[in-house]
Amino acid sequence: MTTTNFTLNSAFMFSIIGLSINRTHFISALLCIEGMMLALFMLLSFFSLNLQLPTLTPLPIILLAFSACEAGTGLALLVSTSRTHGNDHLSNLNILQC
């Protein structure tokens, strides 16, 4: 395993660990998810460059488009949650309550 692959795999794993451990604020959860998407984007980019297959070329761009949609949706949920509950603490959210 090259150092680039090791670095990107460890960045992805640290984002998963950060998401599972640090669950106090909604914005920190969104940042961990964005870190995971950035690591996946870099891994797909290096993977498509190393294999040099034309069918793998659009995959990083498609992933980047999906991550932009995910970021927009997450920020809209953050604004909605902070307006209705007054803060972005995940402990204040109750899924069963409308």
UniProtKB/TrEMBL annotation:
Enzyme class of the recorded protein, top EC level: translocase
Family annotation (Gene3D superfamilies): 1.10.287.3510
UniProt-listed Enzyme Commission number(s): 7.1.1.2
GO MF entries: NADH dehydrogenase (ubiquinone) activity; oxidoreductase activity, acting on NAD(P)H
Gene Ontology BP annotations: ATP synthesis coupled electron transport
Residue intervals passing through the bilayer: 29-49, 61-79
UniProt catalytic activity: a ubiquinone + NADH + 5 H(+)(in) = a ubiquinol + NAD(+) + 4 H(+)(out)
Pfam families: Oxidored_q2 (PF00420)
Domain of life (superkingdom): Eukaryota
Gene Ontology CC terms: mitochondrial inner membrane; NADH dehydrogenase complex; respiratory chain complex; transmembrane transporter complex
Keywords for the protein's UniProt record, in alphabetical order: Electron transport, Membrane, Mitochondrion, Mitochondrion inner membrane, NAD, Respiratory chain, Translocase, Transmembrane, Transmembrane helix, Transport, Ubiquinone
Free-text function comment from the UniProt entry: Core subunit of the mitochondrial membrane respiratory chain NADH dehydrogenase (Complex I) which catalyzes electron transfer from NADH through the respiratory chain, using ubiquinone as an electron acceptor. Part of the enzyme membrane arm which is embedded in the lipid bilayer and involved in proton translocation.
Recorded family membership: Belongs to the complex I subunit 4L family.
Protein name: NADH-ubiquinone oxidoreductase chain 4L
Organism, as annotated: Abronia graminea (Terrestrial arboreal alligator lizard)
